[in-house]
Each structure stands twice: as C-alpha cells, then as structure tokens.
Amino acid sequence: MLASAPPSRPNAKGLIFAATSWGLFWGGWAGLLPEVKDQIGATESEFGLALFGIPVGALPAMVITGKLVSRMRERALPLVLSVFAVACALPGWTHSPVTFALSLVLIGATSGAIEVALNATTAAHEARDGVRLFNKVHAATPLAMVVAAPSVGLARQAGASSRDVLLVIAALVLVSAFLSVDRAGWRTQSTSDTAVRPRSMTPVLIAFGLVAAVVLFMENAVEQWGAIHLEQDLGAGPLLGSAAPAAYMIGLAGGRLLVQWQGERFSGLTVVVLGSVLGAVGLVLAVVTEPAGLPAVVALVGFALAGVGLAPAVPTLLGMAGKSTDDERRPAAITTVTTISYLGFLGSPPLVGLMAASWGLSTAFAVVAAGGVLVAAAAALLRLPEPEGVAG
Questions:
Q1: Which domains does the chain have, with CATH numbers?
Q2: Which region among 110-114, 194-198, 261-265, 339-343 has the lowest average model confidence (pLDDT)?
Q3: Cβ-based neighbours of 66, under 8 Å, separated by 6 or more
Q4: Which one, of 182, 71, 72, 76, lies nearest residue 119 by Cα?
Q5: Which of 63, 90, 342, 356 has the fewest CB atoms within 10 Å, counting from its CB?
Q6: Which residues contact 163 (CB under 8 A, 6 or more apart)?
Q7: How many CA atoms lie within 13 A of 374 on its CB side?
Q8: CB count in 10 Å sphere of residue 104
Q9: Is 276 exposed, middle or buried (0-12, 13-18, 19+ CB in 10 A)?
C-alpha cells in the first residue's frame, strides 16, 4: 500500500515552479526567434539547420538522465534545472550560426534532461505522498507559455534585447532550481509495497510511450501549424491566427486541471480514451470550418476543445507508468515513456508539412485528427493495474 501523505507535502510546489520556469523559457523563446536570427546574421537555411541542435542534444540527454536520476534521486532535478538556467542565457551571447547551434545543443540537452527528471521526480512524489500530481504539474507549462509569449513581445517592443530577456528567464529558472530542492527525500519502497506486476513491464511501457507519442504528434501539429491553418486556409488576420496555439495551450492547461480535480472518478485509461476522442472531435471541427463556410473563430474553438481533450493523456500515462514499478526501476520506466513520446513531438512539424504540401493543410489536420481515434483504440486495449488509495 502507498504511504499516507505527510501533512506538509513538502515539495509539490517546487515541481510546479520547475514546470512553470521550463514553460516560461519555451513560450518566450518563440517570441525571440526573429531577433536572434538577425543577431547572428543567419540565412533562412543556416537558421533552420541551427535549430536542429535542440533535438540533437535532447534525445541522448534524456537517456542519460534516466540513469542520473536513478543514482541522484531527489538531487537530479535541481541539478538539471541549474544547468538549464545557464543554457538559457547562452543564445543571447552568440553572434554566428555556429555558436548559436552549439548553444542550442546544450539547451536541447538540458531541456530533455528536465523532461525526464521532472517526470521521474513527480512519479516519486506520487508514490511517496499518495497523491496525484502529474496533471497538476503538467498544467503549469502551457499556462506559462501562454503568459511568456506576449510578455516577451511587450519586452522587445519596450526595447529589451534578447540577452536581457534570456537573463531574466535564466534567473527565474535558477529560482525554480532552488525551490525544487527536496529535503524530505524519496521513499524507499520494498517489493511487498508494490502491487503484483507482470514479470517484464517493458512491452507495456513501450506501448505507453507510443500512445503518448501520437498525442504529442497531435499537440505539436496544432502548436506549429494551427496559426497557418487559420490564416492560410480560413483567411483569418494575424491577430486571430496567432491565437490558435494560445487557445490550444489554454485548453491544455484547463483540461489537465479538470482531470486533476475530478479524474479520480475514472480509471487512467478511461481518461485517455475519452479525452483523445474529444481531442479528435475538436480537430475535426477545425477542419470542417472552411468547407462548412463557418467563421474562423469556430476553428479556434475546435483547437481549444482539442487541447482540453488531449490534455490529460500524457500526464496520465506517465502517472500509470510510475505506479507500475518500484522505486528502483521507476526512473527507467519514466525515461522509456518520456523518450519514446518525444519522438512524436519531434516528428510532427516536418511530417505535417509533408502532408500539407501533398494534400493541403486541411487534409493534413484531418489525418492528425484520426490520431485521436488511434489513441483511443490503443488505450482501450492496454491493461495495467492501478494502485488504490491515491488522493487528488
């Protein structure tokens, strides 16, 4: 059985601050790209190639971080956040495509490390305190991104340089590293504390990762292509078009908070199935807006609805993966699911672009919407016991 939650639940807020600071960087980063491109004097092709530094650094770092967390346990998250704070500031001092690309390799590596360390730490806290945290923690990131993007735009308009903005973000990340320090430590769980599991969880964890990868594929499709769909296909202006990713992010945060509040009424897989169907419906609404002659704002509503539906899938799958094993093997389990899911996130922009070039963006979004049906079907086939006694 899981231990009762201690009265103070010492570090749940630290996890939320960590997720918030991570979202502040990535939300603000999108608004800084035009200025950074001019700062380093890069051509379009040079800038595009430099951006590949992020996934180049992220994937190997995610694998390494799983082993780091297994050894350092509660000390891993503050460490990777501290290094990420340094990495955040570096692009402000770059003045060539080469140095910019190298700084992005470090950003990608430390950002990927945070994904694994934060998820593993959240799973450890759930096991130690007997509480559900994943949806609450994951809700902080999209909210921070929604706030950060226009804030950076206002700062740039007021005359702040990319270096100024990145230094402020780096300072906030460093504060979150301090707040994430966990003095309570992780609970050491014996085999008798854990529900009986299959002899090998690897196939189930891979399945969880693949389902999560489809969800992240759908998420990044909206984030990267939603504004283009509104402006290119539906004739929306720049203001309404730019609201597409924001509407999705707000839906994402709202859906996670809703499941955090009421999710204990359903099993984890039921939440994933119902949410993915709702996500598919939202994307279909965005697709049919043009042929139905509806105003572009209807597509915006569709993107927000898709965010609400898809919101709990990845946090719920991570939470179930964390509960599927004991303390010793939990970091490896979380690393497996996180790393596989990240492949869907990375592959989404170019694959949607290829589909859009061949069939049109509306058709590409219809294919993306079908991913929701795929997630629902796959989740319905998965079977994994869920421990009882976990509070909201």
A1: 12-181 (1.20.1250.20), 199-381 (1.20.1250.20)
A2: 194-198
A3: 116, 120, 331, 332, 334, 335, 336, 339
A4: 76
A5: 63
A6: 89, 92, 93
A7: 17
A8: 24
A9: buried
